[in-house]
């Protein structure tokens, strides 16, 4: 396929801006690579403090603005007077802590029903997160965990049953509705240190994608993992490689979405890097606009590293092209046994 000439922009600034590359690719090249298919403040028990930086990709300039999820959802108020119930649990069971928001003075008949949540560890440092909210059928709900945030929709019975990547050994999940009600659930993740994890999250239809190329794989090679070829949890357990999960209800209006790539921290007879890139397709929904995302990295030392990103997308005559942001994410170094 014909390949459009790469555009070098602000080369003098490039080295100072963490080496982020800015590459335009033609529609033909993109087709060859990808195929034809292509706020609630977090109410956790502990909050990790991470130093953020915003990367202005248009001019390759490092700025100091913060990724702001506050306008996305109303604030969940959990005052000291709010009732907190600890469900009985054995040592092998996760703790569920249903939380109800302050209830205004009103007739008993109009008061809301109980909302409960449970978090249960499963394979590959994942968590089975369930919610029971009988009075909240087909409602938008926001899930918060260690800085990761995404939206889901409850079922016709007000239930939610999803599997979520954990980012902390003592994992706390806050699940909040738009009216301020919600629940909190905890789980202990004993195998978290066995996996490295990278999150890319955003709001709305931005065109963002995260790509992992394992052991020198080319695009569309056997080691290329992305939302279009996510693999499964079994890949990490059997030693084949990493896997990708897309968290969030993409059909909801203005969804909050979090892509998470997981890779075993050590593999048998493996000693190579996993190359990670962030890309943004120029589409009608984002052309000529500024789009924002946030990355969260959990690599090796169990310390979360957060970075905010702002990208100026070219005008709509570039629809079908891709912006490739090299070196925004830290490549993973795989250590063999």
UniProtKB/TrEMBL annotation:
Protein's UniProt name: Translocase
């Amino acid at each position: 396929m014909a390949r459009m000439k790469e555009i070098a922009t602000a080369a003098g600034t490039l080295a100072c801006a963490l080496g982020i590359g800015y590459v335009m690719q033609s529609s033909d090249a993109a087709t060859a690579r990808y195929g034809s298919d292509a706020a609630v403040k977090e109410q956790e028990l502990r909050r990790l403090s991470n130093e953020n930086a915003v990367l202005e990709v248009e001019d390759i300039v490092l700025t100091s603005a913060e990724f702001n999820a506050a306008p996305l959802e109303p604030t969940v108020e959990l005052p000291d007077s709010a009732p907190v119930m600890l469900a009985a649990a054995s040592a092998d069971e996760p703790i569920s802590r249903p939380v109800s928001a302050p209830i205004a003075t009103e007739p008993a008949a109009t008061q809301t029903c109980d909302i409960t949540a449970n978090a249960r560890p499963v394979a590959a440092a994942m968590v089975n997160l369930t919610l029971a909210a009988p009075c909240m059928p087909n409602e938008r709900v926001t899930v918060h965990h260690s800085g990761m945030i995404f939206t889901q929709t409850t079922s016709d019975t007000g239930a939610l049953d999803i599997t979520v990547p954990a980012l902390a050994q003592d994992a706390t999940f806050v699940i909040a509705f738009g009216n301020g009600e919600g629940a909190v659930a905890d789980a202990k993740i004993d195998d978290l240190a066995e996996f490295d994890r990278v999150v890319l999250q955003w709001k709305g239809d931005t065109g963002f994608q995260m790509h992992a190329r394992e052991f020198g794989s080319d695009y569309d090679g056997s080691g290329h993992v992305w939302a279009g070829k996510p693999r499964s949890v079994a890949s990490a357990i059997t030693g084949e490689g990493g896997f990708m999960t897309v968290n969030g209800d993409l059909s909801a209006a203005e969804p909050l979405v979090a892509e998470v790539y997981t890779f075993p921290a050590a593999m048998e007879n493996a000693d190579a890097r996993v190359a990670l890139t962030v890309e943004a397709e120029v589409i009608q929904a984002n052309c000529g606009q500024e789009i924002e995302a946030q990355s969260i990295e959990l690599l090796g030392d169990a310390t979360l590293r957060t970075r905010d990103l702002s990208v100026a997308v070219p005008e709509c005559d570039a629809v079908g092209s891709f912006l490739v942001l090299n070196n925004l994410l830290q490549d993973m170094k795989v250590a063999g046994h």
